[in-house]
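User: Could you go from structure to sequence for me? I need the amino acid at each position, not a summary. Structure tokens:
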């Protein structure tokens, strides 16, 4: 009879372990999902802040004497460089090349720091 009790006890433990493992997998998946959604919400907030800052700085650039056409050219260059496409200007007929006369002096290829003079948010452990 003791053997039967041991078998029942072992079966109960085995079943409970399987249930706990199943719940752990389920909970781990939920934890990962929640973490991803929180990350998205955080990035959306930071994106909105960056857009507001860019709009303010665009107004400042315009107030400083830059024309709408010059600002549009800057926007187009940023978009083209970001996507790796050429800027569509006739003097740039070889994709992947850059006309140094059209390159903005602040564009040194170092995108890590964000805006010029702004510290790199990723290096200081901030998220």
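Assistant: Here is the amino acid at each position, in order:
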């Amino acid at each position: 009879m003791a053997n039967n009790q041991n078998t029942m006890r072992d079966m109960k433990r085995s079943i409970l372990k399987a249930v706990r493992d199943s719940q752990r997998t389920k909970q781990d998946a939920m934890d990962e999902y929640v973490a991803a959604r929180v990350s998205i919400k955080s990035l959306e907030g930071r994106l909105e802040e960056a857009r507001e800052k860019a709009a303010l700085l665009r107004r400042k650039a315009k107030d400083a004497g830059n024309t709408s056409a010059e600002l549009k050219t800057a926007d187009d260059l940023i978009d083209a460089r970001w996507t790796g496409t050429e800027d569509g200007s006739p003097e740039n007929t070889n994709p992947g090349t850059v006309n140094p006369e059209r390159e903005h002096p602040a564009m040194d290829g170092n995108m890590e720091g964000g805006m010029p003079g702004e510290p790199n948010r990723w290096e200081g452990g901030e998220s």
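One structural detail worth keeping in mind: The chain has a mean pLDDT of 78.
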